[in-house]
Amino acid sequence: MINLKHIFDGWANVIKNKFDALDPAIKLEAEIRLQHCDKCYMRTNNKCDPDKVGKHVETDALTKGCGCNISAKALSPCTKCPLGIWNKMSICNDQL
Ligand code: SF4
User: Fold this and answer.
1) How far apart are CA 34 and CA 13, in angstroms?
2) What ligand 1 atom has the least distance to the C-alpha of 41?
3) Residue 54 in contact with residue 41, Cβ under 8 Å?
4) Closest protein CA for atom 7 of ligand 1
5) What pLDDT does residue 84 have?
6) Are 83 and 58 contacting, i.e. CB atoms less than 8 angstroms apart?
7) pTM for the full predicted model
């Protein structure tokens, strides 16, 4: 399900990062997320590809890519990888 707040948070952090104003803890966790995305079959260019299907690492459910821009998604504290490869950041206080 699309969560506009998560999308907004990710893009806001992209801008903060360009101005060197990003929380270092978010930046560090985003870099770890991106290491997973960089080698993931579901990645097409800078997108988590909704035309590809992968197996969720915990449930084995076949799952489509979310369609998100990976650079922004990685910087959104409360997002999760659709395949469960990475989860919400510890800094996330969102109940969703
Ligand atoms: S968010 Fe998850 S499924 Fe999408 S590219 Fe990154 S690691 Fe792969």
Assistant:
1) 15
2) 8
3) yes
4) 37
5) 98
6) no
7) 0.92
